[in-house]
Automatic annotation (TrEMBL):
SUPFAM superfamilies: S-adenosyl-L-methionine-dependent methyltransferases (SSF53335). Residues 1-24 are annotated as: Disordered. Its EC number is 2.1.1.-. This is tRNA N(3)-methylcytidine methyltransferase. One of its GO terms (molecular function) is S-adenosylmethionine-dependent methyltransferase activity. The keyword Methyltransferase applies. Residues 13-24 have a biased composition (Basic and acidic residues). Coiled coil: none annotated. It comes from the Eukaryota. S-adenosyl-L-methionine-dependent methyltransferase. GO terms for biological process: methylation. The lineage of its organism: Eukaryota, Viridiplantae, Streptophyta, Embryophyta, Tracheophyta.
Length: 321
């Protein structure tokens, strides 16, 4: 299961692999596409999706409850692996101005949040997840991580982004409508007495979270996230790419939509093309700055099997007002 991404259980051999994963382009995505699309064993991944006759609903249901159960079952926090490579991949994070505010959507055990907090002492990370257990675990892991003073800099909150709207304290209506300049000037740090809200986010990170949300709900989820991003702010995206090894392992009965699958525990996984990502973020009013596949080969140390991983890396900006 690709929560392996968050857990580092996986396949990768070599101590510097986490870095390598995001900096190498070991093969061409077009070559993998040609290979997969000409292999009859994979043909069921390519065909249009038809809702099974016995199904009572035409869309996969939000898998938030499945994620909550997942986190309850994995309360030890073993699905934690600091994502240090993100700072190299998105250099604007460590180089951001003082008092940057970042929203980590679907923070899990804090694998991304830890790296963000480590990158600068003046960064505040607001982190939401639909699971209370994982938020508690993230808080515990971050509090116990050496070298990070998190006092007031890590603000976890419970929220199902597929259903709920962000709380007003994150960005109130007045601030949503205010100019970039006004928002920046008036809202340093975390919410203080008499302050309307924290004033919107300079960055939003969506790292292996959007793929966990039903495809049909992605547009409204992204719109919701963009509503709390300041004009000029960046949305940083990392997620599964089409024909990633983990997609090809899904069996026909696990398909719940086109390029959309359900794991045996009920959590969902969608596999993105660049065009899909482009359309989703453009529709939410964002401008594309970077968008590419990251294609990495690695070898399973235990069985020597070759693995071809595909991720999508994207950077989008909310137009400055
Ligand atoms: C693969 S993990 C990624 C965690 C983290 N972003 C990281 O970098 O490791 C996906 C996370 O999204 C959360 N999630 C899934 N659906 C969600 C929803 N509807 N609302 C909020 N969080 C959600 C899950 O609980 C899980 O922690």
């Amino acid at each position: 299961m690709e929560v392996e991404e968050a857990g580092g259980q996986l396949e990768n051999a070599g101590k510097d692999e986490a870095e390598a994963e995001y900096h190498s382009h070991d093969f061409e995505w077009e070559d993998l596409k040609a290979e997969v699309e000409s292999d009859p064993a994979f043909s069921y991944h390519l065909s249009p999706f038809r809702v099974p006759a016995a199904s009572t609903t035409s869309q996969p249901q939000p898998s938030s409850e499945a994620w909550r159960s997942f986190h309850r079952r994995h309360a030890s926090g073993k699905f934690f692996k600091e994502r240090r490579y993100l700072l190299k991949e998105f250099p604007e994070l460590p180089n951001s101005k003082d008092y940057s505010k970042i929203l980590e959507v679907g923070c899990g055990n804090g694998s991304t949040a830890v790296s963000l907090l480590r990158s600068s002492e003046s960064i505040t990370v607001f982190a939401c997840d639909c699971s209370k257990d994982t938020l508690e675990k993230a808080n515990e892991i971050i509090s116990n991580t050496k070298g990070i003073d998190i006092k007031d800099r890590f603000q976890p909150f419970l929220m199902d982004v597929s259903k709920e709207t962000f709380p007003d304290w994150l960005c109130c209506i007045a601030c949503k409508n205010a100019s970039h300049h006004k928002m920046r000037k008036e809202h340093p740090g975390f919410l203080r007495e008499n302050q309307c809200c924290v004033g919107g986010m300079d960055f939003i990170t969506m790292i292996f979270t959007l793929s966990a949300i039903p495809f049909a709900i992605m547009p409204s989820t992204i719109e919701q996230c963009v509503s709390v991003l300041k004009p000029g702010g960046l949305l940083l995206f990392r997620d599964y790419g089409l024909y990633d090894m983990t997609m090809l392992r899904f069996l026909p009965h696990q398909r719940v939509g086109f390029r959309e699958y359900m794991r045996s525990d009920g959590t969902l996984s969608y596999f993105f093309t660049l065009d899909t990502v482009r359309e989703l973020f453009h529709a939410a009013g964002l401008v594309e700055l970077e968008l590419e596949y990251c294609c990495v080969k690695s070898v399973n140390r235990k069985n020597g099997k070759k693995m071809q991983r595909v991720w999508v890396h994207g950077k989008f900006q909310k137009p400055p007002s």
